[in-house]
């Protein structure tokens, strides 16, 4: 598609690679050019922290605000009680209101690093859809909102169809989710003049539903815009690592491990990730991404520093880089490495090195840890670890030990 945008926001996101699809490029671009627009992205509170998979759309909201517009982060205090069935093989476990509240509190602290909620004129808003969903009267809702939805059309959406094609159960509770998300857009338009919903391309069907509903009920023109679902150049889903999700909360993942995730970006992804996850000029991102040989590693360090600085602050990024240099270039331990503290009671007569590898997050199971040792991928204090039956006792833990999985993943174990 050849389209030359007029608005700063559309020009920025198209140049940097954020745009997958839009319901009406021209009309949205016109609205963005004519004055301040309000847009939202919804986040269900299914965990205590957001993860790297959310970061693309958080950066999208950040650019939206930086180009003069007003972002809304919509917490799904209401929709989390139902669970989004989109492209899932099974039903999400239902959370208690208390757990949902705790998760929302954890997510808020991450958003505050990227968005300015107190800015004059275009300060971000944080809202919770429980505000309008919790008090709905079922019969009134069916009559006023449900009548605008065709079951035939809802069954045709890929997110639902793929579940039914595999003959996996889709509960009536989950089936209601897309109606509730559509109703969110209607309410945000009615209450805040919100003109745009953004999200990952897996949300396209839900976004279009909200646009249709708002046109039918309020006769307002509103828009949808999606970002690509990112995979790394080796085909993995963005944000997944061998150790599990890359969390954005420092309580769930240390700034060093977050920094190291970005430092380990493949050569082919470096330029693209610089455009999406940093604010460096596009020309600089392209120059760094095109570096060859060992120079590409300098670009990856810049990527890791820039992304970590945005989330955890420049000091955390500098500390992570210093630790990495000490560990990799000088063979040292590094004060900022992820650390597992084992109590004297836990240690007892000794604890297996396999258990320590799992508990320190270097492997997800004992089986994986043993395979790592068998494949010569494990080290203890930089020496090859070949004995999966090795027991670590108090004498061995008199000083902290360093465990390594491959060349790039390390953890300290200490006696507490």
Automatic annotation (TrEMBL):
GO cellular component, one term: cytosol
Motif ('KMSKS' region): 237-241
Chain sites annotated for binding ATP: 240
Compartments, record wording: Cytoplasm
CDD domains in UniProt: TyrRS_core
Catalytic activity: tRNA(Tyr) + L-tyrosine + ATP = L-tyrosyl-tRNA(Tyr) + AMP + diphosphate + H(+)
Motif 'HIGH' region, chain ranges: 45-54
GO molecular function, one term: ATP binding
Binding positions for L-tyrosine per the UniProt entry: 40, 177, 181
Keyword flag Transmembrane helix: no
Pfam families given in the database record: tRNA-synt_1b
Family (UniProt): Belongs to the class-I aminoacyl-tRNA synthetase family. TyrS type 1 subfamily.
Oligomer and partners: Homodimer.
Function: Catalyzes the attachment of tyrosine to tRNA(Tyr) in a two-step reaction: tyrosine is first activated by ATP to form Tyr-AMP and then transferred to the acceptor end of tRNA(Tyr).
Protein name: Tyrosine--tRNA ligase
UniProt organism field: Histidinibacterium aquaticum
């Amino acid at each position: 598609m050849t389209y030359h945008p007029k608005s700063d926001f559309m020009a920025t996101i198209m140049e940097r690679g954020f745009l997958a699809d839009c319901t009406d490029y021209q009309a949205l671009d016109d609205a963005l050019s004519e004055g301040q627009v309000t847009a939202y992205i919804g986040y269900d509170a299914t965990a205590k922290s957001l993860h790297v998979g959310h970061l693309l759309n958080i950066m999208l909201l950040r650019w939206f605000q930086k180009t003069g517009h007003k972002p809304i982060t919509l917490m799904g205090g209401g929709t989390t009680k139902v669970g989004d069935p989109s492209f899932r093989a099974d039903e999400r476990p239902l959370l208690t209101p208390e757990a949902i509240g705790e998760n929302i509190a954890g997510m808020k602290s991450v958003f505050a690093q990227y968005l300015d909620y107190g800015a004059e004129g275009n300060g971000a808003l944080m809202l919770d859809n429980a505000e309008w969903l919790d008090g709905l009267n079922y019969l009134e809702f069916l009559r006023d909102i449900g009548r605008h939805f065709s079951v035939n059309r809802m069954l045709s959406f890929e997110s639902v169809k793929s579940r039914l094609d595999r003959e996996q159960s889709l509960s009536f509770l989950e089936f209601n989710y897309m109606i509730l998300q559509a109703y969110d857009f209607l309410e945000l338009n009615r209450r805040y003049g919100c003109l745009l919903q953004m999200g990952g391309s897996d949300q396209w069907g839900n976004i279009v539903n909200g646009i249709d509903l708002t046109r039918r009920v309020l006769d307002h023109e509103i828009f949808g815009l999606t970002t690509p679902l990112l995979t790394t150049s080796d085909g993995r889903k963005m944000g997944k690592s061998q150790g599990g999700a890359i969390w954005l909360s420092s309580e769930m993942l240390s700034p060093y491990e977050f920094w190291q995730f970005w430092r380990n970006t493949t050569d082919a992804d470096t330029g693209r990730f610089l455009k999406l996850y940093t604010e460096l000029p596009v020309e600089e991102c392209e120059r760094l991404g095109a570096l060859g040989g060992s120079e590409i590693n300098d670009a990856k360090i810049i990527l890791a520093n820039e992304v970590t600085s945005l989330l955890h602050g420049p000091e955390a990024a500098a500390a992570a880089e210093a630790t990495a240099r000490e560990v990799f270039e000088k063979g040292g331990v590094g004060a900022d490495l992820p650390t597992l503290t084992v109590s004297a009671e836990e240690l007892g007569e000794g604890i297996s090195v396999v258990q320590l590898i799992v508990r320190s997050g270097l492997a997800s199971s004992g089986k994986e840890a043993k395979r790592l040792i068998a494949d010569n991928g494990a080290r203890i204090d930089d020496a090859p670890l070949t004995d999966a039956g090795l027991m670590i006792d108090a004498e061995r833990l008199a000083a902290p030990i360093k465990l390594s999985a491959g060349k790039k993943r390390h953890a300290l174990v200490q006696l507490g």
